[in-house]
Specification:
Length: 171
């Protein structure tokens, strides 16, 4: 018993098999295109976000460094007071959150000693010539000023009041 093959049925089977195989190719192609599109869109989103995060981190680090430097600058006089064992009082005080320091009645019994002033000047790296200038100031000289790296100073002297000195961070 030989089976006979109907040519029309065989043609349908072949067409169906070809169509099934042929339809798998476009599906695989569309799948590959879809995956590639997802990858491209993901990269297009992730790369700018990564760059933005890196820039934000760099900016934050720079801001933190600036804040640390400002803190150190404003702490200069407090550190000098600690190193010289100078205590704030009505005659000696740190002003404007560390921007300046004021000495009043320097050399008088009730005020800070000239050694306290000279010690603080040394801690803020004032030139030694400044001590000589302050020591040589007379009442007739009026208000004197000077500056050095990062600082400005003004002082005057009167025999009744002692020396009055203002040291500031340079602007």
């Amino acid at each position: 018993m030989t089976e006979s093959i109907d040519p029309a049925a065989a043609s349908e089977d072949t067409t169906q098999a070809t169509t099934t195989r042929g339809s798998k190719r476009p599906f695989a192609l569309w799948l590959a295109i879809g995956i590639a599109a997802v990858v491209i869109v993901s990269v297009a989103i992730v790369v700018p976000i990564t760059i933005a995060n890196a820039e934000a981190a760099e900016k934050a680090a720079a801001e933190q460094a600036a804040a640390d430097a400002e803190y150190e600058r404003l702490a200069t006089f407090a550190k000098a007071f600690n190193a010289c064992d100078v205590r704030s009082s009505e005659y000696v005080e740190i002003l404007d959150r560390g921007e300046a320091v004021s000495f009043n009645a320097v050399g008088k019994l009730y005020g800070p000693s000239i050694d306290d002033l000279y010690c603080v000047l040394g801690e803020v790296d004032a030139p030694s010539t400044l001590e000589a200038k302050i020591g040589a100031t007379r009442a007739l000289d009026g208000v004197q000023t000077d500056e050095w790296s990062g600082y400005e100073i003004e002082w005057r002297y009167h025999p009744d009041d002692g020396a009055t000195v203002l040291i500031e961070h340079a602007k």
